[in-house]
Amino acid sequence: MHQLFSQVLGQRDLSRAGDLFSLDDTEIEDCLSQALDQIKAISCSPDYLTNDNDQAVVEICITRITTAIRETSSIERHSVALVGLWESCLEHNLTPQGENTEDTPHAKIASDITSCILQNYSCPSVMILAVPVAVRFLQRGNRELSRNMSSYLSLAAIAKADLLAEHTEAITLSVLGGNPMLLRVLPSVYPRQPDTIHRHLGNLTAMMPQLESPEQQHLIRLIQIVAEQHPLMLSPQVPLLVGYLGEKSMTEAVLGVLVDVSQASPSSLVSFLPVLRTVGQQCSALLGHVAKIHSAVGIISEAHAHSSLVFLVSLLGTMEHSLHHTLLLEIRALTDRYPLLLGGCGKDIYRMSNSFTAIAKLLGRRLEESAATRCRVDEPSPSSPCASLPGGEGGGGEKGRGSVQQLQVKFQTIEEKMGGERVEEDSPVCLRRYSPSQAVREERSNRSKSLALHAMHSHSINSDSGEDGDAVEPIPDNISPNTLPKQQPENQKAPPSDRKRTSDGSSLPVTAALDRAVREAGRGDSKEKDEAKEERDEADRLFIHLRDNMETIRDFCKDMVKQIPVPDQCVIEGNVIVFVSHYYSVSGL
User: Fold this and answer.
1) Are the C-beta atoms of residues 160 and 130 closer than 8 Å to each other?
2) CA dist 7 to 12, 15, 19, 27, 36, Å?
3) pLDDT at 442
4) CA–CA separation, 64 vs 20, rounded Å?
5) What DSSP assignment string belongs to 473-497?
6) How many Cβ atoms are within 10 Å of 131's Cβ, its own excluded?
7) Which residue ranges of the chain lie beneath pLDDT 70?
8) Is 507 helix (H, G, I), strand (E, B) or coil?
């Protein structure tokens, strides 16, 4: 040890203590650890608390030693002795007694050493020794010392969070005990010790109103991390979190947390949807979060989905354009989960229009129809009577009567199907686009099907005169009754005298008419297949051409993109429709 250090510490010579600052740092660097050990012995003596001279000597020597350590960057060399002196202070009283607010002698030593040690938070070897001791200081009740310790530990958590992770319990208890500065440490240690923080999550969330704004932000950050990694842990805290939505500084962050919680536990937010809607109405920028929560809750059941859809559709027609994409995504998610809410026409609605207002009106109409349908489910549906035709006088027997009744049932079924198709054609959400070739094929097919239906109906009328019903052949499955409303009245109005009969008085065989109808339908189908094959060949040729000229097309597109002016250089010509048409023509390239 240096001679001057030996004299000052050995003899407690306060008069020579000031001379230590006249020495060069490198001159005393080698003896700093020895000096620290001797200071530790002096501070642990029984009369140290009452000996002002010894306290003054120790204070001056510690200041000189810590200065030399910083100047020579020798903290790693002397860290064992320095941490040893620091830890010895824990064996003594650190809290002021009575009305005296001055720090105790050992609290002063601890404060002087704390900054010297923890300023080296980026040095692993020092932190391994210092962190366990620093955590113990948090539990000693000295508020000022704990506050300073918290500041340094927060920095240490950024650089070496692993060293603090094993002390998560002590740090959390210190926060709950009134040391909120350590809240900034918890987000760093949470990924390594989540269960420890989960045990205290309710108490941590409840202390939000007691915190200042910076401390609230650290706690919100912790809650956000929990919501991202373990959202179910926050399900019991939903009432508290909803209560914090009134604080403008926390509203957006808390809503984001509730969105994550709703994905994992939607039932926990059902009773808070009215509050969330009110928050969204007060600030339209938050409606995106509110919409996501409603969508998550709607997944629970079809009833919840219907209620959520009504709210989302009401927003679609009134909110600004930036929110429409989010709303449509959430509406699509619900309608995909419960297709019957829109009667299976959801895709048609989305495809019909680029106007969000029009989509909102169509969705609202379908929701109203769906609600009305559910209301009528429990009502008894009247049974439609099935009229029976009497058997012929000349004798058709039970066989003929049964065939007639079977035909009447089939006619009634066809009429009901036609009625349903007629309603669907009148509905705006089921509009179809037909190409000219499709229209021609459908017209040809309808003529063939009409012949078959006409033949069947004629046979049903002839059965009244006693003809045998065994000649009736079953209706082909591919016959559609599109022309039945035109054909059936004509047949019914025709007088019996106008019906053509054969030379022996019997009616034209139904089987022959049906055969002609089937052959006609077969020819129509074969033509349709040929036309479809031609269209596929044409599409194949187009595909091959595009594939072989892909590089040319790509170069052309690049050149066109370069020629598109920036928005500031665009000129709207004529009206908005002209501008939009130009825009889409360029985009289509």
Assistant:
1) no
2) 7, 10, 11, 16, 14
3) 55
4) 7
5) PPPPTT---TTHHHHHHHHHHS-GG
6) 22
7) 98-100, 141, 342-539, 565-589
8) strand
pLDDT of 93 reads 87
Cβ(279)–Cβ(286) under 8 Å? yes
CA–CA gap between residue 82 and residue 91 (Å, rounded)? 16
Residue 149 corresponds to which tokens in the numbers above?
Answer: 């310790």
Tokens of 405: 């009744």
Please report the pLDDT score of residue 527 as a whole number. Answer: 63
Q: Collect all residues with Cβ–Cβ distance below 8 Å to 413 and sequence separation of at least 6.
A: none
Report d(CA 350, CA 366) in Å as an integer.
Answer: 13
Q: Which long-range contacts (CB under 8 A, 24 or more apart) does 348-352 make?
A: 348/429, 348/430, 348/431, 349/429, 352/428, 352/429, 352/431
DSSP secondary structure code for residue 140 in this structure:
S
What was the pLDDT predicted at 77?
92
Separation of alpha carbons 413 and 280, rounded Å? 51
- Contacts (Cβ under 8 Å, ≥6 apart) of 343: 366, 369, 370, 429
**Would you state the pLDDT for residue 496?**
42
Residue 465: both structure tokens together: 């005169």
Which of the 8 DSSP states describes residue 501? B
pTM: 0.58
Find out whether 470 and 403 touch, Cβ atoms under 8 Å.
yes
Residues 6+ apart with CB under 8 A from 156: 118, 121, 127, 131, 134, 163, 164
Structure tokens at 530: 């040929």
Phi then psi for 567, rounded to 5 degrees?
A: -55, -35
pLDDT at residue 191, rounded to an integer: 92
